[in-house]
Amino acid sequence: AVEWALFNNDKVGNTVHFINEGYDEGNIIFLECYKFPSNTNYQSIRVKVYKEGCILASKALRLIYDEKITSADGVPQDHRLAKYWGPIPDEKFFKVIELVNNGKYKYQTL
Fold first, then answer.
1. How many CB atoms lie within 10 A of CB 101?
2. Rounded Cα–Cα distance for residues 67 and 86 (Å)
3. How far is CA 36 from CA 8, 14, 25, 46, 58, in A?
4. Contacts by 48-51, CB closer than 8 A, 24 or more apart
5. Which residues pair with 30 in a beta bridge?
6. CA–CA dist 20, 26 (Å, integer)
7. Residues facing residue 14 across a β-bridge
């Protein structure tokens, strides 16, 4: 959840993983995190996350197709570290926008 990551000053990124019978539990194929310029805004972060997510998904599909990897080849997730974040409340979402637009998100760089 991008908004919660921003709100909590955590890294923002994308994960590609295999799907199994559990919720968000399959083995990981790729994981990447991003930094953003100090002058970025919330919309730019969202665009980058979506764009990079599409690119990462295509890389994973290519790897599955070319290398014939299966779910057993991915990296197991540590379910003890997993958290589910529901939709962010409006008042916290507005704080996210303020944080990013003021260049105070921890992973904004010069």
1. 14
2. 35
3. 16, 14, 28, 11, 22
4. 49/2, 49/12, 49/13, 49/14
5. 16
6. 5
7. 32
- Strands (E) in the chain, as ranges, are 12-17, 28-34, 36-37, 108-109
Summarised one tens digit per residue, pLDDT across range 57-97 is: 999 999 999 999 999 999 999 988 888 899 999 999 999 99
Residues 107 and 55: their CA atoms lie apart, in Å, by: 21
Closest CA to 82 of 32, 26, 34, 29: 26
Measured CA to CA, the distance from residue 106 to residue 7 in angstroms comes to 10
pLDDT in tens, 14-57: 999 999 888 888 999 999 999 999 899 999 999 999 999 999 99
Four-point Cα dihedral 80, 104, 57, 22, nearest 10: 20
